[in-house]
Write a structure and sequence with these properties.
Blueprint lengths: L4 E10 L7 H18 L7 E6 L2 E10 L5 E9 H4 L8 H10 L7 E5 L2 E10 L4 H14 L20 E8 L2 E2 L3 E2 L2 E2 L3 E3 L8 E3 L6 H9 L5 H18 L2 E4 L2 H8 L6 E6 L9 H12 L2 E5 L4 E9 L6 H26 L15 E3 L3 E2 H19 L3 H10 L7 H5 L6 H9 L4 H9 L14 H20 L13 H14 L6 H10 L10 H19 L4 H8 L6 H14 L5 H17 L17 H16 L1 H5 L3 H9 L2 H10 L7 H19 L10
Antiparallel strand pairs: 1-3, 1-7, 2-3, 4-6, 5-6, 7-8, 9-10, 11-12, 13-15, 14-16, 15-16, 17-18
Helix pairs in contact: 1-4, 6-7, 8-9, 10-11, 10-15, 11-14, 11-15, 13-14, 14-15, 15-16, 15-17, 15-18, 16-18, 17-18, 19-20, 20-24, 21-26, 22-25, 22-26
């Protein structure tokens, strides 16, 4: 039978969906239906998701209209057990035939390596796709990530918002589906204001064009998003500037409108005396407006709003938005003036009222710990400890300001502004913003020495504190963003080329928690956590897993040093001697592990060296110990491994010509000691036996 294919449209019409969740809901709906079709073994060409504030929709091209027919096969008893001596069917065979609903004569015989068996074969006709769709759609809706579902009226079912219509078209035909108290048909609804009347959808492939041309609805989420992006940029250019387009705001606005129309408005230039970030947060957070910057980066007294309607009187719409933004910006100005009346330093006492974590104390307590650690880090970096300590003490003071209370995303940024106004040192002010960097993957790192010290101290205090009270991240739960903090610590140290000992810093951080931490081996736990994060970091950088494992085996505690060793190992493995030396090191390691008790405290006695090959190796080991000292001092790990590569022939000759496990105990122990010294040369950089071929 030749298989038939048709296009499918599914649309669920609703009250306005949460704009920030719209894209996630749409993607989840697509994944659910896609998985349902695949589980039903129904093939299709392309599945395309559409989403607007009032609808979730899927258009699926060339969907198989019926499952493939299947041959169902059941194996019965073996032929030897199916008939008695007279050739009559046994009870076992008769029972099998009855269970299949056929006579014994209808069964077939199948030959296998283990003998002959009676089997029953039956052709099972594939189900029609239309009959499977109701369950597939229902299951996908049930699986949507909706934290709180709602009921409305006396209708059955629950959803994130009340639903009003349901379209399910397979080709030209409506598929009968009843969901959430609705029966499917082919009528959708256009824009709430431009075209509130029903629209008859002809086919799935005319769905999006019909809604746009007849209904004033741009149903394609990405196309609508690009349209908004283009309109905003074009309008900003006409105002002589560039739009400030926050990706999150762009997504949210895309989820708010079905027919986007960009309009520009103005505000009083006197508000430009406020920090630009405060104005932008006010415009974005309260009104969903896009700000406009001049070519030199200064903010312009304009904003761009996205309307959900093509108004016949745009000037009136603009005037309304200008009236609305005035009190918002006035509030920001009030916060700015109020906050400036009290210096940051005088706000420290207020931090005692904010709990950081129940067991770890208040934000004030945390500031004291971070100040001590930041001063120590600054000293280790060779920078000014007093500046780092001062910055750490002021770091969280902007949390109790009016501006940050209204716009939490400005913490650190407002601290920098207020510190500058208070006459604090420039590095101290900058550190109040830099303490939060990197805020996300790929974000800029702190650049000032003071900012680096405070940022590291802040993150280390949080990580050590949470581990120390037995609350490390678990699964997907990471309420204090420890994963991001740990990666931030590693990036700051490595990418700023800082020779800081992470184990020392972790220990210092732990010591600042006087009689608070309850976990044993906190430093060990935290260091293991950092090593785990470092693994992901280096692999993302293109390193190989076995290179990481080879360096991890010697547990360097300086992240920068760890990276230098990895680079050396990566270069070493390109040498022709690398494979042989890795195998030799693995062999040495195995021998030493098996005879660990016998080698304790042993040193090489040259008088016990008898074979030429072991004498040659002993001579090379002594020479290497002297030659490598300056290379180790300079952290020239590539030079070390390059030098050791020259020992390949000597090591190979040793294993070919020398019996390590001699019957003479003294000779055996001497050879074990020699191997121990040989391996120690390599372990000064990494355990190259971890390298795979």
């Amino acid at each position: 039978m030749s298989q038939a294919y048709q296009d499918l449209l599914i649309e669920l019409g609703t009250e306005e969906l949460p704009p920030k969740a719209l894209l996630k809901l749409s993607q989840a709906f697509q994944q659910g239906v896609e998985q349902g079709l695949k589980s039903a073994e129904l093939s299709f060409d392309v599945i395309r998701a559409h989403a607007t504030p009032r609808r979730l929709a899927l258009v699926i091209s060339k969907l198989q209209t019926q499952q493939n027919d299947l041959t169902v096969e059941r194996r019965g008893p073996a032929v030897t057990a199916a008939f008695d001596e007279d050739g009559n069917p046994t009870k076992a065979l008769q029972g099998f035939a009855r269970s299949c609903g056929v006579d014994v004569d209808d069964l077939e015989t199948m030959q296998t390596d283990k003998g002959a068996w009676l089997i029953f074969k039956q052709q099972q006709k594939g189900a029609e796709t239309a009959s499977l769709l109701p369950e597939i759609i229902q299951q996908s809706l049930n699986a949507l990530p909706i934290p709180k579902r709602m009921r409305w009226g006396d209708l059955p079912g629950e959803f994130v918002r009340p639903v009003h219509w349901l379209v399910v078209l397979l080709g030209d035909d409506v598929v009968p589906v009843n969901l959430l108290g609705l029966n499917s048909d082919r009528f959708t609804v256009g824009h709430r204001f431009h075209h509130p009347q029903p629209i008859r959808i002809s086919t799935p492939m005319t769905y999006a064009p019909q809604l746009e041309s007849e209904g004033h609805v741009m149903v394609d989420y990405e196309a609508r998003k690009q349209a908004i992006h283009g309109q905003v940029n074009e309008l900003a250019a006409s105002l002589g500037g560039d739009a400030v387009i926050n990706p999150d705001l762009l997504d949210e606005v895309t989820g708010l409108v079905e027919w986007p129309v960009a309009l520009a408005g103005n505000f009083d230039p006197r508000f430009l005396e406020l920090p630009a970030e405060a104005l932008i947060s006010s415009m974005e957070g309260h009104q969903k407006y896009f700000a406009v910057r001049a070519k030199n980066g200064d903010l312009l007294p304009h904003f761009i709003t996205i309307c959900n309607i093509a108004s016949q009187d745009p000037a009136q719409v603009i005037a309304g938005n200008e009236r609305v933004i005035l009190p918002r910006l006035s509030d920001a100005a009030f916060f700015w003036e109020t906050d400036r009346k009290l210096p940051l330093a005088q706000r420290q006492e207020q931090l005692k009222t904010i709990v950081f974590q129940n067991k770890l104390g208040t934000v004030y307590d945390k500031s004291q710990r971070v100040a001590a650690l930041a001063a120590s880090i600054a000293q280790q970096m060779g920078s000014e400890a007093q500046l780092a300590e001062r910055a750490a003490l002021l770091a969280k003071c902007d949390l109790v300001t009016e501006m940050v209370g209204e716009f939490p995303e400005l913490q650190g940024i407002m601290g920098r502004y207020y510190a500058q106004l208070d006459g604090e040192h420039a590095d101290v002010a900058e550190a109040l913003d830099e303490q939060y960097r990197p805020r996300f993957a790929g974000d800029d790192l702190p650049q000032t020495a003071t900012g680096i010290a405070v940022s590291l101290a802040e993150k280390l205090d949080t990580i050590v504190g949470l581990f120390g009270i037995g609350q490390p991240p678990s699964g997907v739960k990471d309420p204090f963003a420890l994963r991001r903090a740990a990666l931030g610590v590693l990036r700051i140290i490595i990418e700023n080329q800082l020779s800081l000992d992470l184990s020392r810093l972790v220990t210092e951080a732990a010591n600042n928690f006087v009689d608070i931490l309850t976990e044993d081996e906190v430093t060990t736990q935290v260091m293991q956590y950092f090593y785990d994060r470092l693994r992901g970091y280096v692999i993302d950088q293109g390193a190989k897993a076995d290179e990481y494992e080879s360096v991890l085996a010697v547990l360097p505690t300086q992240p920068l040093d760890f990276m230098q060793r990895m680079k050396a190992v990566a270069e070493f493995r390109k040498l022709e001697q690398a494979e042989s030396l890795a195998a030799g090191n693995k062999r040495i390691g195995n021998i030493l592990r098996k005879n660990e008790a016998e080698q304790e405290g042993l040193s090489v006695d040259t008088n016990l060296l008898a074979e030429p090959a072991e004498k040659a190796l002993a001579d090379q080991v002594v020479a290497a110990q002297h030659a490598l000292k300056p290379l180790y001092s300079a952290s020239d790990y590539a030079g070390v491994l390059n030098y050791l590569a020259g020992m390949r022939e000597t090591i190979d000759a040793f294993f070919e010509q020398v019996m390590v496990m001699s019957d003479d105990e003294a000779v055996r122990n001497n050879r074990l000691a020699l191997l121990n010294q040989t391996r120690a040369l390599f372990l000064g950089v990494a355990d190259i036996s971890c390298l795979q071929e």
